[in-house]
Amino acid sequence: SSDLVTHIGDGYLQKNPAAIERWAEMVPLRRMASPEEMKGLALLLASPASSYITGEVVTIDGGSAQMRLF
User: Fold this and answer.
1) DSSP 3-state assignment of 6?
2) Are the beta carbons of 65 and 27 closer than 8 angstroms?
3) pTM of the model
4) Are 33 and 62 in contact (CB under 8 A)?
5) Alpha carbon distances (Å) from 14 to 4, 30, 49
6) Which tens digits make up the pLDDT trace of 21-49?
7) Surface-to-core class of residue 38, CB atoms within 10 Å of its CB (0-12 exposed, 13-18 middle, 19+ buried)
8) Region 48-53 average pLDDT
9) Alpha-carbon span 54 to 70, nearest angstrom
10) Higher local confidence (pLDDT), 52 or 24
11) What's residue 44's pLDDT?
């Protein structure tokens, strides 16, 4: 299967085109992230470079969290 489902995401949005459109309307970048854009964080967290990172929640949301500040 070409569907990749991990704890990074459950695949809900990818299976629901209407949800993707609604998400894109709310995100400043106006689109979903591609898997290529997500893999950098996964590689960092799986590498020795993250050995001092603990208990962190990293939000990758195309800027939508910042929009809630205004």
Assistant:
1) strand
2) no
3) 0.56
4) yes
5) 10, 15, 30
6) 888 888 888 888 888 888 888 899 899 99
7) middle
8) 94
9) 29
10) 52
11) 92
Q: How far is CA 48 from CA 16, 32, 51, 52, in A?
A: 36, 28, 5, 9
Residues in the chain: 70
| Confidence at residue 49, expressed as pLDDT on a 0 to 100 scale | 95
**Shortest CA distance to 29 belongs to which of 61, 60, 59, 62?**
62
Here the tokens at position 23 are 């998400």
Residue 17 near residue 47, CB atoms below 8 Å: no
d(CA 29, CA 36): 16
